[in-house]
Amino acid sequence: MASRVQQLFEALAGRLDREQAAKIERTIQWKITDEDPGVWAFKIDNGSGDLISGGVDNPDATFVTDSETWIGVAEGTLDPMRQFMSGKLKVEGDMMLALRVPKFFPVGAVSNG
């Protein structure tokens, strides 16, 4: 059975806001670092997207966090900016792209997934 972290990434794949992601060709990656570790990337290509389990070599932006923080952010119970400011959610790479992620995947978009 898939972990909750994996389930949320799989649900996220179907929730891309295609209008917000139009004319974007970028790869966003998430690295989960605790007892349920893993790497997932999401390649956005002109309004469509593909989830890549295991990640990619050179993502444009990478979020690094633990599973509890990721689950809370994905379900909309934790504010991503507050988690970033507290150091629980780190960003590597393109900070401007990272700031746009909530527009691509609205907060809480996977809470029912």
What does this structure look like?
This is SCP-2 sterol transfer family protein. One of its GO terms (cellular component) is cytosol. Residues 16-103 form the SCP2 domain. With 113 residues, the protein is α+β, with helices and mostly antiparallel strands. It is 32% helix and 27% strand. The protein has four helices and five strands, in the order H-E-E-E-E-H-H-E-H. Helix 1 runs parallel beside helix 2.
Helices and strands in order:
Elements: H1 4-13, E1 25-32, E2 38-45, E3 48-53, E4 61-65, H2 67-75, H3 80-86, E5 90-93, H4 95-104
Parallel strand pairs: 1-4
Antiparallel strand pairs: 1-2, 2-3, 4-5
Helix pairs in contact: 1-2
Protein name: SCP-2 sterol transfer family protein
Pfam families: SCP2
InterPro entries: SCP2_sterol-bd_dom, SCP2_sterol-bd_dom_sf
Percent helix: 25-40%
- Please tally the β strands and state the result: 5
> Looking at this structure, what is the CATH superfamily?
SCP2 sterol-binding domain
Class per helix and strand makeup: alpha+beta
CATH-defined topology: Nonspecific Lipid-transfer Protein, Chain A
Order of strands in the sheet with most strands: 3-2-1-4-5
**Terminal Cα span:** 15 Å
The helix-strand sequence is: HEEEEHHEH
Spans where pLDDT lies below 50 across 5 or more residues: none
Task: Compute the number of helices.
Answer: 4
The average pLDDT score comes to 90
The CATH class is identified as: Alpha Beta
The CATH architecture is 2-Layer Sandwich
Brief summary of the model shown:
The protein is an alpha+beta fold and 113 residues long. It has helices at residues 4-13, 67-75, 80-86, 95-104, and strands at 25-32, 38-45, 48-53, 61-65, 90-93. Strand 2 (38-45) and strand 3 (48-53) form a beta hairpin.
